[in-house]
Amino acid sequence: MVEQRIMSVVPSSSNSCTKKYDVFISYRGKDTHKNFNTHLYEALMQKKVETYVDEDIEKGDEISAALMKAIEDSRVSIVVFSKNFASSKWCLNELIKIMDCKKELGQIVIPVFYNTDPSHVRNQNGRFMESFVKHEGEPNCIKWKTALTQAANLAGWSSQSYRTDSELLKDIIEDVLEKLPPRCRNQCKGWVKNLTPEA
Predict the structure, then answer these.
(1) Which of 42, 58, 72, 94 is catalytic?
(2) Angle 146-149-154 (CA atoms, 0-180°, nearest 5)?
(3) Could you say which residues of the chain have pLDDT below 70?
(4) What distance lies between CA 136 and its chain's CA centroid?
(5) Is residue 86 part of a domain?
(6) SMART domains under this entry (predicted)?
(7) pLDDT for the residue numbered 5
(8) What does the pLDDT read at residue 19?
(9) 124-132 own/partner pairs: CB under 8 Å, 24+ apart
(10) Are strands 74-81 and 21-26 parallel, antiparallel or unpaired?
(11) What is the pLDDT of residue 126?
(12) Where are the alpha helices (DSSP H) in 10-64?
């Protein structure tokens, strides 16, 4: 069972309130873009949390320099693990960057396991194992697996523990607000969407 709440000490460095975004959301658009993530965006918007939403969804395998920068410029990353998350090299490369930012910049990472078993993410079982059979021979394979295991070992939120998405979203939003530094909570001004035009 995923631990549902975690107390986090947020660094008091001056950098904590100089970030451009409060939250970056990583997700597999094929699975959750039109439902859970839309509701997550709206819930963050209602709380005036500055959120980076990548609308340039999964074009190819490599994520852009602008997206890399957006991850670096975020205080918190929410990673929504869904059944087909690991089938996307784009999502896996995003996750590597997010976990690097956690290690090097102290970024807070909140995993959300949406209709998927946390142990499948942690151990690459089930659909995650099927995805890695297809990724066999990829140069980043070990890095992807390591990032998945590290992220799944963090305290997070599982939809399996909730009757409705609205209950899950309520707890996620409360968790995000608790993890933002107090000064930054007061400075939250709005909602940002990445509206990169189609190439």
Answers:
(1) 94
(2) 130
(3) 1-17, 33, 55-62, 183-199
(4) 24
(5) yes
(6) TIR
(7) 34
(8) 80
(9) 124/86, 124/148, 124/149, 127/83, 127/84, 127/86, 127/87, 128/85, 128/86, 131/84, 131/86, 131/87, 132/86
(10) parallel
(11) 95
(12) 29-32, 36-46
Residues of the domain holding 148 = 17-194
- Provide the 10 A C-beta neighbour count for residue 113: 24
User: Looking at the 3D structure of the chain, how many domains does it have?
Assistant: 1
Per the domain annotation, does 1 fall within a domain?
Answer: no
Hey, CA dihedral for 18, 78, 48, 184, is it positive or negative? negative
pLDDT at 24: 96
pLDDT at 195: 39
Q: Residue 8 falls within a domain, yes or no?
A: no
Say which DSSP state 58 is in: T
17: amino acid identity, one letter: C
> What is the per-residue pLDDT for 156?
97
Residue 33 resides in a domain: yes
**Nearest-angstrom CA–CA distance, 36 and 50:** 18
CATH number at residue 78: 3.40.50.10140
Residue 32: the pLDDT is 76
94 a catalytic residue: yes
